[in-house]
Design goal:
By secondary structure, the chain is an alpha+beta fold. It has helices spanning 37-50, 73-82, 90-95, 113-126, 185-202, 210-217, 219-225, 242-245, 268-280, 301-313, 347-354, 410-422, and strands spanning 18-20, 23-28, 34-36, 54-57, 63-68, 98-100, 139-142, 156-160, 166-170, 176-180, 231-232, 247-251, 254-260, 265-267, 285-288, 293-298, 327-329, 365-368, 380-387, 390-397, 405-408. It has a six-stranded mixed β-sheet with strand order 6-7-8-9-10-11, covered by helices on one side. Strands 1-2-5-4-14 form a five-stranded antiparallel β-sheet. Helix 1 runs antiparallel to helix 9 and helix 6 crosses helix 7. It starts with 17 loop residues before the first strand and ends with a helix.
Length: 426
Amino acid sequence: MQRGPEIKGWCPGAFAPMPSGDGLLIRAKAVGSRLTATQAREIARIAEDCGNGLIDLSQRAQLQLRGISESTIAEALRRLEAIGMLAPNVDVERVTNVIASPLAGLAPGAFDANAMAAELAIALRRDATLRALPPKFLFLLDDGGALSLAEVDADIRIEAATNGELAIRIADVPDRAAFVAADEALDAALRLARAFVELREHHANQFRRIRTLVEALGAQVLARAAGLELRAFGDTHTAARGAQIFGAQRCGSIAFAGVGAPFGRWRAEELAAVADFAQGAGTGELRLTPWRALLIVTPDVEAAQKIVAQAQDHDLITSANDMRLAVVACPGAPECPQALAETRAHVMDLAPLAQKFVGADGVGLHLSGCAKGCARQNASPITLLACAEGFDLIENGGADSAPHLKSLTFEAVLRELSARASGRPQ
C-alpha cells in the first residue's frame, strides 16, 4: 500500500529547521515585504557559506536557505540576526507569519501595510496568549494598491474597503467582513486571533487553522467572541497577474523590475546579482512577493529596463510569457523525503505543453511529489501526482483530487498532454 504523506503542521524556521533530503531547511524571517540589497546579498553569502547555495522564495514571501548542516547552523543564525532577519526566539518565530502588500509604503494604498506588519510583529512578541497560535496561522495585510493579494490564502486579513474603513476578514468567509476605522484595524485583528486561541483551547486544540474552526462552529461564533460584527462584503479587488509583476513596470510615481527564478529556486549567485542590480541601478531596495518573484525598486522605468536586461543575462524570468511560469512544481525527491519521485527534472519537458492549458492565473500544470500539494493549494487545469508506479493525472483539481488516469509513465504523460493540447480524443 502506498504510504500517505506526513503532515508536518509547521513551516521551517531558523530555530526549528526542517530536515530535508539535502540537509536542513531554515527561513530568513521577514516581517512585511521589504528587503534591502544588503540583506539579500548577505543571505546569498550565508547560503554559500553555510548551505548548498540554494534559496527558495516561498508562497509566503519568505526566503528559505537549503542544505544547512548541524555544524553551520549556529553561524547561519548569528549572521541572520546581524541583518535583522532572525526572530527573538522560537516561540515568536513560530507565530510571526505576516504577508504584506509588495509595494506597501511606495505606491498608493489605503494604509501602510509594512508599518502595520511591524506593529503586528511587536504585538506577537509581547502577548503570550498569541504565542498559542498554530505555527501555520497567517496574517495578511492588503493595502488595496496595484498588486492585490486577493488570491493569497490567510487566516486573518486586513484589507482596504471602499467606504474608507478597513475590512477584517476571516478565511473561507468571502462575502462578510467586520469594518473598522484604520486606527482600530490591528486591534480588531488581534482580538480575532485571541478569540481563535480561546475557542481552539476550549475544543482541545482540534482546529489547525481558522477555516477548520469556521467549518465546525461558524464564522459568527468567532466574530462574536472577538466583539466584532460581520456585515456583507463585496470584494472589488482583482488579484495581481503576471503581466503586472514581471519586467519593467511603472506604478504611480515609482517603478520596479519584476524578476523571478524558475519555481522560486534561486542560486546564491543569482540572488547576489539581483542585490547588485538593486544597489546599482535601483534604490537599494527589493520587495518580496507570494508569487515567487522579487521586485527591484527603481527611480524610473529606464532603470528598471536596464535591470531586466541584466537579469535576462542570468536566465531569470522577466516576462509573464516565460513558459516556465506555466508549471508549478515542488522540490520533489530526493530533496523532500515525502516525495515519491523527482519533479523538477521533468519541468522543462512539460513547460511547452503546460502553456497550452494555462488558466487565469497563468498556471497550466502542477507537478506534485505527494498528495499534500505543498507547491499549490488551488486547483489546476492539469495536476500530475507522483505515485509508486509513475504519475497520476488529475484534471481541474488539486493533488488530493481523484485522478482521471493512474500510474502513467512519464512518456505516457507526455503523450496524454500532447493529445489534449492538440484536441485529439483521449
